[in-house]
Amino acid sequence: MNDMTPTREQRSAALEGMGCKRKRVEDIRFTQGKGNYVDDVKLPGMLHGDFVRSPHPHARVKKIDDSEALKVPGVLAVITAETLKTVNLAWMPTLAGDVQMVLADGKVLFQNQEVAFVVATDRYAADDGINKVIVEYEPLPPLVDPFKSMDKDAPVLREDLAGKTSGAHGPRKHHNHIFEWTVGDKELTDSAFNKAEVTIKEMISYHRTHPSPLETCQCVCSFDKIKGELTIYGTFQAPHVIRTVVSLIAKLPEQKIHVIAPDIGGGFGNKVGAYPGYICAAVASIVTGKPVKWVEDRIENLTATSFARDYHMTTEIAATKDGKVTGLRVHVLADHGAFDACADPSKWPAGFFNIVTGSYDFPTAHLAVDGVYTNKAPGGVAYRCSFRVTEAAYCIERAMDILAQKLNMDPAELRLKNFIKPEQFPYHSALGWEYDSGDYHTAMRKMMETTGYAALRKEQAEKRAAFARGETREIMGLGVSFFTEIVGAGPSKNCDILGIAMFDSCEIRMHPTGAGIARMGTKSQGQGHETTWAQIIATEIGIPADNIMVEEGNTDTAPYGLGTYGSRSTPVAGAAIAMAARKIKAKAQMIAAYKLEVHEDDLEFDIDGFRVKGLPEKFMSMKDICWAAYNSVPPGMEPGLEAVSYYDPPNMTYPFGAYLCVMDIDVDTGVYKVRRFYALDDCGTRINPMIIEGQVHGGLTEAFAIAMGQEIRYDDTGNVVTGSFMDFFMPTAVETPHWETDFTVTPSPHHPIGAKGVGESPNVGGVPAFSNAVNDAFSFLGSTHIQMPHDFWRNWKAAKALGAVA
Amino acid sequence: MAKTHVTMKVNGAEVEGLVEPRTLLVHFIRENLGMTGTHIGCETTHCGACTVDIDGMSVKSCTMFAVQADGSDITTVEGMANADGTLSALQEGFRMMHGLQCGFCTPGMIMRAHRLLKENPSPSEQEIRMGISGNICRCTGYQNIVKAIQYASAKINGVEFREAAE
Fold first, then answer.
1. Where is the Aldehyde oxidase/xanthine dehydrogenase a/b hammerhead domain positioned along the sequence (chain A) (predicted)?
2. Residue A384 is among the residues annotated as catalytic for this protein
3. Whole-angstrom Cα distance, residue B120 to residue B122?
4. Of chain A residues 575-604, which have a CB less than 8 A from chain B?
5. Confidence check on the interface: ipTM exceeds 0.95, yes or no
6. What DSSP string runs through A547-575?
7. Among A260, A522, A667, B57, which residue is least crowded by beta carbons within 10 Å?
8. Are A378 and A96 in contact, with CB atoms under 8 Å apart?
């Protein structure tokens, strides 16, 4: 070998494969303003649609008069429920087995509900039009408090369900009841509580919030009457599912519907659901014969598209005096708003909330969830979490702190005592999950050592003493949280959305010159798929990542997949990529054997090609194999080098992490300061550490917002009081803390590359860390639990209620 | 509605158009000029995705009328790359420091950071955080955006960029 021959390290580095901090290919266009988002789509003759929305949270719609609106220059049509009835689209199925009005049919059930859709030549004319539609309402009493939804005299919200004693998930107990879901062994759990030396019980609320991606939900629908084809550009996290649903409800053949999700400006779960805007734009395009664009504004996004959380969790733990947990009992009251449009797999009415036993070895547990209707926006989404995992993690992490307080134990020590042990994996939880792998003790101890946990506790004790002596007005809190996530939905044996099994897909085509394209069933909303997917292929088949183009979001070209939400892209589609790449590699090996004139078994894969075992100079690069695949394949073999994989995971993956928040609070003002935030994540194999860290930063920022101020709040009359960024807390660079990140690596044993997924972990683990810090700060004054969000005002109120402020 | 004739300079080129008096500047830029790099995120001046540079000031174009910009000199994100088409120091900083994810806030962030560095070529971390406080990002948590701006600052000043220890 001469000096010019690259070393193994150089050959490997040239691939920019897994483990490399490869710079994102997306950024070249995004930093120049050359992204292509839905609002950038402009079709010839395109019209614009806008909604007339209800000012009332609950009212009968007596009359809609569109005569003045139709006189407005530029206004072409006003679509109401009556129009939609002619095409059988006045109501649409929800993801949760319920139905939802597309436009108000007889009455409205939440403020800003869609009442009529005005179609005009431009967005200004459409806006003029909506102001001229006269709607006559008869207000009805609103139901705001979910705890009163099943009162005897509670108003009947869903008249369409009158008299129905069962719903999509079993019996209904009341006219505002949606479902009851129970899991676990009630008898055994009750018995654990009867025998318990110590118990705790607390009502822990996770308030209603909203994902609010910076780009709102929007679409452009274009119906071609001649071809009978409908093209929809939209902000869709799951384009294929949208196509199937549109086909089923609009009775159009699926191949004649083209769904294109271009660049998406953040999703966070908000862009999973189907919204009236999509249906109305499609109908408007069919009616007018022209393309119709619908772009939601920020107020509409916050008040009418899918909310998140709104779970009220009565939580009990049974334990021994020395802190070993013996039972968990949780009852959840779930406020689903006016229609049950939650994004959960069909068989799980409360999502994966039954991961609520967390990272702890509970011998028994029982869970009951009641879903109820209220006069609020519908559609609980998996906001940066997989189906209610955030609520579950918050519930158990708050409860473990409350137990620690009762036992006078350190919360970290209590957790270490109850963790599932490394040798217990695969671990079967009391509520029915099989955790794939984990090493919780190592992660927790690394967190404690790196942050100097013991010293921080000592400092806290000193500060408390100084506070008691009146030397300071500042209190200090240490928020410990340890979470286990459940992501990668999911095995088709138990996970589907509207009956469509939750696999995912990848198709790879290698071209003769050694370049290739990978097409995916997933859809990035900022996660950097174009960068990381190519890295997996680079490592698997030895072609540089720069030579692989990744394409997503076009149902005409991409293989069928369930899309991107709930951190399922890497656990499911990441596996599909590896499996497709391995099919390519297997064929490449046959071609190489033929060309090198040896038996396949005599070859070994070596970074970027195949080498004859024992004869290092006999080597054929993958690039050369690609060329050979199109001109000199073995006799009888089909030319070409491509593969498709539909990956149905055998199990979910279970990433975990240990977080610590150090916070100081001034009792006289309630002003908090996050002094430190440390996040250790274990997401198994790390594909691109730079992107992982970036996702952790982003998830923590959203967790910070939720825990420390962000809330969708309704007043007693059903009026949304947090309808813009003026009053819905959006942290800026000024408030947002500095993040310290760290990691351990415990690969998933069943995933082809051992990757578990990370995007939502920091949101799941972050919220309890912040809340535990606040609660820990106040605990020595005698409180056990203060509800989120912990903004300055609420902190001050807590300090006052606890007697710290005169 | 009667339309008004406006002329302005956008990214160095003279442009003109007929707009309603109520037409927002961001709509003029996006719809009339077809330059879609400037984004709309909130329409209430809070998020900063529509930030452009007007006569040497950062302006949120979603709450300014196009007629108010008549005669002005505007720079949008499309005017930020170097003359030879390569990424400018700021754009490169965002890429090198992973200062973006979905990319929706990025044009506004870059435009704001551009003006910030014009006014203060060597800002401290605190000055950067204050300087971009009118721009909301939902994906990256700001830390890497701050680094991106520090990277650009170093490059513009011809000094070596050193990442602060975590």
1. 32-141
2. yes
3. 6
4. none
5. yes
6. GEEEEESBTTTSPP---S-TT-IIIIIHH
7. B57
8. no
